[in-house]
Amino acid sequence: MLLRRHFAAALLGAALSSPALLVAQNDSTAIIRGTASSSFNGHPLAGVMISLPALQRFTVSDSTGRFELARLPAGQQRIRISYEGRATVEYTFELKQGKTKRLSVLLDVEALDLAPVVVEAQNPDFSRNLAGFYDRKKWYGGFARFYTREDISRTSATRVSSLLARDGIFVRCGRQGCVPMLWTRGALCAVAVVIDGMPFGEQDYDDIQIDEVQAVEVYRNNFFAPTVPQIASFGPIRTCASALIWTR
Length: 248
Known about the structure:
There is one protein chain. The protein is about 20% helix and about 40% strand. It has six helices and 15 strands. The chain has helices spanning about 1-15, 20-25, 130-140, 150-155, 160-165, 200-205; strands at about 30-40, 50, 55-60, 65-75, 75-85, 85-95, 100-105, 115-120, 145, 170-175, 175-185, 185-195, 200, 215-220, 240-245. The longest helix is centred in the N-terminal third of the chain and has 15 residues, at about 1-15. The radius of gyration is 25 Å and the shape is elongated.
């Protein structure tokens, strides 16, 4: 029994001293991993180049839009996005030792100037940004209405208010202001409207040109939006829905 234990300990020691395991234990590098998609319809984009000019390292997204760069030094690194010969400004991200930085890249491939949305991808449920829109569309497609830029272009909507009207949202005004509202269960309730992550009133969001709207999501709850300020003309207002509007 004692001989067997010594033999097992010797095997364990040999394994711990193996080059592969030592590299894994002492790996001080970082990884960048993510996806590249069209901001028009959310479809994956192949051929998007993600590069770190200072390190002369790059990778290209595959047919599913996925990309990865491994064995990168930790610390602040500048990342450049390129597509079909068009480059963008550089973005700086903090890479941590032994960690993976997950990025979501959205590109308006029809635009003359390549102006991507590049964000760090975290929990898709709560990524309150345009990149998170496509994650939420996958998660909540059966419980909310999602309009991509492609969907919006197919409608006859000429204003944001006419687009929201397709989901029963209209504006009711009193002496002290206007509130987007919705009929539900036989009663009126307020709709919280958020533009690019910031709450706005009706007089603000309907000034946005419909061609500048990249995506819209409408929820029959206020989970993703702040509370609508109370307007005295209507008395206490219950918030029952939220509309998130994302612009280019």
